[in-house]
Design goal:
368 residues, alpha/beta, 3-stranded parallel β-sheet, 11 strands, 11% strand
């Protein structure tokens, strides 16, 4: 951490910021930056304690599961950090058939999943007709379930068709709210403006929308992360997926150090305090950089985990970053392992769609 516990004056100043954040759910850009840049182990513990209390007030000790189905490792984009970028000629490409995707959902339903997340690279094969057909089949077979899509940037008309077919949620991480940093991470044909257009369209159409960003990625500063927090505060996504940057050996960013669990969990706590009822995953990337990463994420304020329902023989090929965990486990084994992990920290996986809860009246303790 940048500062240690001997800096009592800094700790006192950060304590005031934490109080303000709990009271107003809002800080200025400079205040967010200070909270990040001057963090100490003490402020991390305080933020996690406050975030945990807020999450328990809204969701108790429930942890929601999303059954992740990784449908394709083909991608037309060339993002510099991603292992399935189109320039990676060593990537092993695959594409699940419609029947395989529906079968994964059927298996997940039997295991107790009530939300399915269909995720893939921006693969031109998955036209609106193809994807709508798959969504309609899953929706018809499991009308009590939520269907979440994560297929990147599409047209407004595409998002509308998919929503009408039965998809109610859409995950589209903004990656960074800094235009300068966005340009450093992406090819010239991609833009932060278009990414934000997509998020706006999704919100207007009626999706529950998920945004999110990388932590500890190349060239990222405390100011950049403060911009991300301000964007989350302003946009108020129903879901927010953040995870540490994990390098992939076949990308231009292969030599950069990964992000840390410490900073990721610190930011999870802040996001929980910005939006007390947000659906906040403890991501696979967090579990990849430290063995107990997902447990740390839950204890810092997260309340969602995403076990993998993809066919085991395909999981290693959805290779976004190096050393990804759970690539060899069957779906039942993966869910059982996560259930035991959650019980070990006093939480429980529940059979539930895991919709965002209404925001209760949050009263501060008397005298606060």
């Amino acid at each position: 951490m940048p500062h240690d516990l001997h800096s009592s004056e800094a700790d006192e100043g950060l304590a005031l910021l934490i109080d303000k954040l709990c009271r107003t759910r809002s800080l200025s850009l400079g205040e967010y930056e200070r909270l990040i840049a001057q963090r100490t182990p003490g402020t991390a513990r305080e933020l996690a304690s406050r975030a945990d209390a807020v999450r328990r007030r809204v969701y108790g000790t429930k942890v929601f599961t999303r059954g992740l189905i990784e449908v394709s490792s083909f991608c037309k984009n060339d993002c510099l950090y991603c292992g399935i970028r189109r320039s990676n000629t060593s990537a092993r490409r695959y594409r699940l058939s419609a029947d395989e995707i529906v079968e994964c959902a059927d298996t997940g339903y039997e295991l107790g999943f009530r939300t399915f997340v269909l995720q893939g690279g921006e693969d031109p094969f998955f036209t609106d007709d193809v994807l709508c057909g798959i969504v309609e089949r899953i929706h018809a077979a499991h009308p009590d379930c939520a269907i979440t899509l994560s297929f990147g940037e599409r047209s407004r008309e595409s998002y509308e068709r998919l929503h009408e077919a039965g998809a109610g949620r859409y995950l589209l991480r903004h990656e960074t709210a800094s235009p300068t940093l966005y340009r450093r991470w992406h090819p010239a044909e991609m833009s932060l403006e278009n990414r934000m257009r997509c998020l706006s369209d999704l919100r207007e159409i009626g999706y529950a929308v998920g945004a999110g960003f990388m932590v500890g990625a190349p060239f990222q500063t405390a100011t950049d992360l403060a911009c991300d927090l301000q964007f989350i505060e302003r946009f108020q996504p129903e879901m927010c997926g953040i995870g540490p940057f994990v390098p992939h050996h076949a990308t231009p960013f292969s030599a950069f150090a990964p992000g840390t669990a410490e900073l990721t969990c610190y930011l999870l706590s802040i996001i929980r305090l910005i939006k007390p009822n947000v659906l906040l995953p403890a991501t696979t990337a967090l579990g990849t950089i430290v063995p107990d990463g997902r447990e740390r994420g839950i204890l810092a304020g997260a309340n969602v985990v995403m076990p993998n329902l993809s066919p085991v023989n395909r999981r290693k090929d959805y290779d976004l970053y190096d050393n990804k965990i759970c690539t060899g486990e069957e779906a039942a084994e993966c869910r059982g392992c996560l259930g035991a992990r959650m019980l070990s920290i006093g939480h429980e996986l529940v059979v539930d769609r895991g919709d965002m809860a209404p925001l209760p009246e949050m009263r501060l303790p008397s005298g606060a």
